[in-house]
Amino acid sequence: MEVVKKVLAYIYRNPEEVLVFNHLLYPEVSPQVICGTVEESEGLEEAVLREIFEESGLRLKNPALLKTASYIRKDLNQLHERNIFELFDVNLPDKWKHVVSSGEEDQGMEFEFYWLSTNEAKLKLVGEMGLYL
Length: 133
Description:
By secondary structure, the chain is α+β, with helices and mostly antiparallel strands. The chain contains two helices and seven strands, in the order E-E-E-H-E-E-E-E-H. Strands 1, 2, 3, 4, 5, 6 and 7 form a seven-stranded mixed beta sheet that branches. Strand 4 and strand 5 form a beta hairpin. The radius of gyration is 14 Å and the shape is globular. The two termini are 27 Å apart.
């Protein structure tokens, strides 16, 4: 089984709300937090800040690594090493859309960002992402 390093960004504006997004082209997909694959030449902190910028347009600072967890993607026969980061920013809008302008997988996709209560996110986030709240 292939091992793939991933980063996940849990961005909070207060302890009760986490930033999530929906794929506008795929409304059937549950909300998710910003995440992506670590490139060979980058560290974990660099990877999470790059993914945040690519997927949301935000330039944030000071990600804190909370923990690392394993997640099996059976459909791809991959073991994902999830490096979970926490960030705080109270000055973000309630809602916005962003078109991904770089990256291999998501380029050109439009994401809609909004805040979800942490309790609701625990239940709704895709791919067991709610387990880390």
